[in-house]
Amino acid sequence: MPNPNRGSCGFQSSEFEQEYDRPSKSQLKREMTALQKLGEELIAESRDRVKRVPMPEDVRDAILECQQIKDHEGRRRQTQYVGKKMRTLEPHEIAEIQKTLDSWRGLSKADTAAMHALERHRDRLLKDDNALTELLAQHPELDVQHIRTLIRNGRKEQAENKPPKAYREIFQLLKQLQKPSADRDGEDDSEHEDDGDEDQHN
After folding, report:
1. Which of 122, 107, 124, 62 is nearest to 89 (CA)?
2. Which residue, 111, 116, 126, 134, shows the most beta carbons closer than 10 Å to its own?
3. Cβ distance 85 to 39 under 8 Å?
């Protein structure tokens, strides 16, 4: 007797085709992480700016509420909730949000690459004490005690899921160091050009 599960209603079913079309677990995880990070970027913006970003009201409300929470655990939970709300957005909505954030920062592709390099440098400082030794060798004018305190606080923030205050301060400090000396303290243009070349090679 023929098996009723075979034939046109069996392996030729579109159910199997759909299963292969689904994104992999690793791809989904990358997308979720990216949306979580995008939500955190919005939380870090000013309330006035958040109100101008094109997005659904429920997502905006979740972000504005998170900005008001001072309790570390409460803020962490709300940040996770913001990430969950971000995952409800359509691709065109996500693109509009990213476009708005990029326009505020005036980011070109070169700017984006430079920003990512700074982020990697910051992460090295938090993970490897040798990175601080190298930084101080390149910039002996730095306040050693201040940057050590920032790194210690940044590590503590990560370990305890606290708001990334020192984490952001380290980024700003590194960003400031990338600026040519002429911009930082009004020194001559020759040093400006040398620093610019060094930035391009790093």
Report:
1. 62
2. 126
3. yes
